[in-house]
Amino acid sequence: MTKKTYLIGVDTGGTYTDAAVIEAQGHKVVASAKSITTKGDLSIGVTGAITAAVAKLPEGLKPEDISLVSVSTTLATNAVVEGHGSAVGVILIGFDQAMAERTGIAKAFPGMPIAMISGGHDHNGEEAKPLDAAGLASAIAGMPVDAFAIASAFAVRNPAHEARARDIIAKATGKPATLSTELTSALDAPRRALTAVLNARLISRVSMLIEAVRRSMRGLGIDCPLMIVKGDGTLALAERVALRPIETVLSGPAASLVGASWLCGKADFIMSDMGGTTTDLGILAGGRPQVAEQGAEVGGWRTMVKAIDVKTIGLGGDSEIAIGLNGRLEVGPQRVAPISLLASRYPEVVAMLEADLADTEGGSLHGKFVLKPFGANAALTAEVSPREAEILALVDERPKPIRKIAVSSAAQRALAALKRKGLVQTGGFTPSDAAHVLGLQDNWPGPAAALAAKLMVRFRDMKLGDAARVEAFCREVWSETVRRTARVILDTAFGKSFGDHELVDAVSSGRGALGLAKVSLSPAVPVVAVGGPVRVYYEEAGRRLGCEMIFPPFFDVANAVGAATGVIAQTVTFTVDGDGSGLFRLHGPAGTEVFTSGAAALAAAEERARAGALEAVRQLGAQAPEVRLSVSKHHLPDAVDDNGLLEAVVKAEALGRPETRG
To answer: N or C: which end of the chain has fewer CB within 10 A?
Structure first.
């Protein structure tokens, strides 16, 4: 009898960590579980989810039976969306002022230290100017940062100056440095620089996750390869991803798309994945995810890292509910810990809410709390100002009212900075709380959500709400969450955003009419809804859109299922440039080679691309990979053979399943 292969998929979301156990031969989920994500020490939530999933197996599962652990994560996506990350120093080699401004780094990250260093190459890969090593050493000496990002002009044609700069930084500081050429082979130096910065800001966060999962595996006696889901839905060995965390941006939705396809068996659909922090939407067409070849766009930034073509918005079950101008209800984009969750963990929250209700002065900070991240420990550190340190000293593991800690606007700014740095978390009223009041959700029992809703009603209406008013407010929160959900599904179906178009709003709000005209807009393919909260909102969204809404089995852990069932893929690209004089330059990851024959240059490109892709995919942990080769050519007008080659692009994609233990 063939021994069964068991795979464990794990997803660390903003609120929950999910685990799913897959039996590979039977193509089935045999167990799943959830545990609260503990951002202070991720291993607590990871261990809890895996342990709970394994415990649900009817005959038990021995650690030695686990052949692979694979993880998808929203950590990188959420960090980009919410503006979190490590302090980074930026090294721009061979950039002029206009190029530096086009990166958008100074505008996106005010105060981030940027040094422009003489050096760089030209479009042929020849050195334009020597690297100013002394200037680089002087610049980095004055940068109090945790990591560095390096981008050099035409480095994709010759990465020598980037590599040398990293060596200098490593020797002088011992801190990690991201090279732009390690992330993309595209020529756009300013965008390469921004992508490198985003990557460097994420290294510590994703490294913490990898170490947390490894710690969990050791504690459970699991000894097998550990893979991470990348943003294009493929897998890679964890140690290879640790220094390229930007590749995990959109890892969560990519895994969800893979998992949704695996669970429902359909080849064409829109996937909508709602979690605690974000809603992510992608398209499966002809059985393959639509991929944004120009790079993933997240949080307003277009990276140069290949990822699924996904639309991400700050809308989730734990989105903060705020009252804007003229009493307008605002949902997100910031995530907070739901009041009902806090009260289930810390019963004293109910008494604090009652005290807020007894304070007749009212105020926007009533019903809002601050505490350290779940599972926080003394190892959680970051650079803080004296004012931030003063506020942080007032925060501990149990919730405290924000109004008693952030008693001034300066204190509130310091608290916001601490939250951005991941040193504290805040709690407040969310769609999840509204759903608890309405009886649509029962994750966390207790009266806290209703008390918090009363405070929201009092702040908006300037009078204490009765039961009917509180229910109406919660219904409004629920309906607004559905409206935004329906609207983003339509945007995905359209392939573009129509903004505040009145026809779209008439449909997504559920009115279904504009004036005396009935209005209907509906996706032409089914919508597959995955993620923990979707049952609460998506049946109504499907009704408003008049579309087929599918909730596949194990929809609440689709991301963990996708993590366990993905493949490893790697693409290597070489270009050949002919100048019309009989010389052909072959550009690749190692630099530039010159040939006197177009055919010879092409043959070398194909050979090197194939070998490079195979080596790259094997390093990522693939077994028995296959290679697909594609070649596009452009010739001079009077060319009769490849000696008249003007340009050629050779791409080799290698694919394989992860190598499992046993």
So the answer is: N
